[in-house]
Amino acid sequence: MTHSNPLPKITRQLLGILVAAAAASGLAHAQQAAYRIATEGTYPPWSFKSPDGKLQGWDVDIANALCEKMKARCEIVAQDWDGIIPGLVAKKFDIVVASMAITEQRRQRVDFSDKYKDTISRFVAEKGTPADISPAALKGKLIGVQRGSIQASYLTENYKSSSLKFYDTPQAAELDLVAGRVDYILGNVVTYFVGFLKGADAANFDFVGPDLKGGLLGDGNGIAVRKGDTAMVENVNAALAAIRADGTYDRITAKYFPFKLM
Questions:
Q1: Tell me, what's the pLDDT at 19?
Q2: Which of 121, 45, 43 shows the shortest CA–CA distance to 84?
């Protein structure tokens, strides 16, 4: 005997449509891009950890905004600066959003997105320090700088007659400046402006000398991906263009800075 289907034909059709839609949705979710993104985590206001250990900062917000535009599931992790490019090359993560300066030396190891902010470096020293920060003027002086940074490369190349002291974080260099263990520190203008120079410990310190940029100090900052990953560069660039066009980039910037970064 043949049993008839108890469901009306139109109900069976609707059920079929719903099942197909659910299957398509599940497939789309399974195929959704998933990226692991590295940032530094010790570099406020760009990236740092809250008291409960959660990553936050301008770069973290930018990374999340880019993931939203790319419709990707992302995990953002902290990585010590001197291991950030080796980690990318070793496929520990897929993208680096860490205010990384675009330099020719780094281009040999990674590919970069379009520039997503400008970079200016300056020396900081005790107020009243002479404005001449030429290599000749700083001969014999102790200069603190973060290890692996563009400023470290710049000093190593140009200030051979100075004594350079390298630190794992910018904050460690700042502490030694306040304690008198170094005469100058060199780093990112914006970082110093909104961080160190706003603190009570920096009351007797200020910028000295002119803005420094270009050459070893880079051509702005970019988002790094593995060498040869053209598709990833294109995806990141499209997402960057989208967050700039719809105002997301400016809203994130205004959350941290009273001025534009580009």
A1: 46
A2: 43
User: Cα(56)–Cα(180) distance, rounded to whole angstroms?
Assistant: 31
Amino acid at 252: I
What average pLDDT values come out for the chain (262 residues) when binned by 10 residues? 49 52 44 90 93 96 98 97 96 97 94 95 97 98 96 97 96 97 96 92 96 90 97 98 98 92 88
CATH 3.40.190.10 corresponds to the domain 121-217: yes
CA distances from 233 to 15, 58, 112, 135, 229 (A): 42, 20, 7, 38, 7
List the domain boundaries for the chain.
Answer: 32-118+219-256, 121-217
Return the pLDDT at 219.
84
User: Is 32-118+219-256's fold the same as 121-217's?
Assistant: yes
Q: Please, are residues 98 and 43 in contact by the beta-carbon 8 Å criterion?
A: yes
Type of residue numbered 119: T
